[in-house]
Automatic annotation (TrEMBL):
This is Bacterial alpha-L-rhamnosidase domain-containing protein. Gene3D superfamilies: 1.50.10.10. Residues 37-179 form the Glycosyl hydrolase family 78 alpha-rhamnosidase N-terminal domain. Coiled coil: none annotated.
Length: 482
């Protein structure tokens, strides 16, 4: 990871043994079901599309089962939409004798670029390439059933026959995915449809309910946006509660919380520290508490909330941590983190009266996110906050967010300040822009001007079904409806 993006958490973990069994008791029972590919396809160049290629039908799944496939042959399965689970298939052979193993390369693709370029093997990024969803297997004896042991998130599967022998060719049949999720398909069908006549918003709402599917660790701020979407749709409050307790179980000796943690092979706090994530833990607790009205959990986690603010408050001069024994009875939900600045302090430190926006740094940078966070903190009257946001939006030099996470923060601030129509327009242009470009889950990174934008130097290591991108369902169903 680039040095400019790394902060190591310099504290020992004070495990709270009381919280781990609570977190464990909240774990969902995973559902399983069988999914099957829809067709065999190939990708052909098509410059006018977002990924500059398109899928065309090659053969049916039934035809594949009777098609002999040999060395250097390959085919691509299309499951039509994103799947997560374990691939399995039956492999047989025909010929004089099956006198050598079948060596296969399997590549699991989320978007066409994963398969239609020169391959994942050419990926060069600073994040580990072991994330890349491909592997080579050797099948020693045919006929046999092959079951992949790793869980993958994908829409497409490319199977390449690296080698067999000159004596035989292979047949692939009974291709399935044993899909796994904490949400069974029938739960999706039970969610009331979004109350809108706009088909793009309807589709955006549905897509945001699917994801994420790949990460091995729990990131706190990613979880926050997932939890808010969960509150507005699935309402699995135990899942949210368990995540809060598992973070509280690995609190640092200085009161800080890690940006992310690992559950396997045993519970472990990661060394990464992000001050924003630490300060927002109280917001996460507040949002959970209000959703199912679980004030007992709020009271139990209140000391953790106060501890999580200590490191954040080290960056603010002359601030005393207040004593909080219960939830704020009214006001802004971000008051959980007592970093809310008074109007006088905010205007003195950051406000530029000549431009009418907040600025930061020696170059007096104007950022969409700065305006959004200060607006959400309620440092100015709502009408003035609305003007901050609209001024930033109209300034071509203002820095826009790079990821859907930042766009969510800005989108949330707009209706809070009375700019409801502007929020709807932003949702349609940004998340709707992904929909119009073929997304069936929302992406980790999206730049409408660059289809290969990546925080990792290479788009092939991007996630295309990402936690912090799932927020439109929450924005549409909760923020915009309030």
């Amino acid at each position: 990871m680039p040095a400019s993006q790394t902060v190591q958490r310099k504290t020992t973990v004070a495990f709270n043994q009381k919280f781990t069994p609570i977190a464990e008791s909240c774990k969902p029972q995973l559902s399983e079901w069988i999914e099957r590919p829809v067709e065999v396809i190939t990708f052909v160049p098509y410059p006018s599309t977002w990924f500059q290629c398109r899928a065309v039908h090659r053969m049916s799944i039934d035809e594949l089962a009777t098609t002999p496939i040999g060395k250097r042959d390959e085919f691509i399965l299309d499951f039509q939409t994103h799947r997560v689970g374990y691939l399995a298939f039956h492999l047989d052979g025909t010929g004089k004798s099956i006198d050598a193993p079948a060596r296969l390369r399997l590549t699991f693709g989320e978007v066409p670029l994963d398969l239609a370029t020169d391959g994942l093997g050419a990926c060069k990024s600073w994040i580990s390439t072991s994330w890349l969803p491909d592997e080579v297997i050797n099948v020693d004896w045919l006929p046999t059933d092959v079951a992949m042991h790793r869980r993958y998130a994908f829409r497409y599967v490319r199977i390449q026959i690296i080698d067999t022998s000159q004596q035989y060719r292979a047949f692939f049949s009974d291709l399935i995915v044993r899909a796994v999720s904490s949400v069974h398909p029938r739960v999706f069908n039970s969610i009331p449809p979004l109350k809108t006549s706009d088909p793009l918003l309807q589709k955006t709402d549905l897509i945001s309910q699917h994801g994420p599917r790949r990460d091995r660790r729990l990131w706190s701020e990613d979880h926050r946006l997932q939890a808010l979407t969960n509150h507005a749709t699935f309402k699995d409050f135990n899942l949210d509660k368990g995540c809060l307790y598992i973070f509280a179980a690995v609190v640092g000796s200085d009161g800080s919380l890690p940006a992310c943690l690992f559950e396997f092979p045993s519970l472990c706090a990661a060394s990464y520290y992000i001050v924003d994530y630490d300060a927002l833990f109280g917001v996460m607790v507040y949002d959970y508490t209000i959703a199912p009205s679980d004030f007992d959990t709020a009271r139990e986690l209140c000391p953790t909330v106060l501890g999580s603010l200590k490191t954040a408050l080290c960056h603010v001069k002359s601030v005393e941590i207040p004593r909080l024994g219960s939830l704020p009875s009214s006001g802004c939900r971000y008051a959980w983190a007592p970093l809310v600045l008074s109007e006088a302090a905010a205007t003195k430190a950051f406000y530029d009266s000549s431009t009418g926006v907040f600025v930061s740094g020696p170059q007096r940078q104007v950022s969409w996110l700065s305006q959004a966070w200060l607006a959400l903190a309620g440092v100015l009257p709502l009408e003035r906050c609305k003007q901050l946001l609209l001024t930033a939006m109209s300034d071509p030099a203002a820095l826009k967010p790079l990821f859907p996470y930042g766009w969510t923060t800005f989108a949330e601030a707009l209706p809070v300040c009375g700019a409801r129509e502007e929020c709807l327009s932003l949702l349609k242009s940004y998340w709707g822009g992904m929909v119009e470009r073929g997304a069936d889950t929302f992406w980790e990174c999206f730049d409408p001007e660059d289809n290969r934008k990546s925080p990792y130097q290479d788009f092939r290591n991007n996630s295309y079904c990402h936690a912090w991108s799932c927020s439109p369902a929450w924005l549409l169903r909760s923020v915009l409806s309030s």
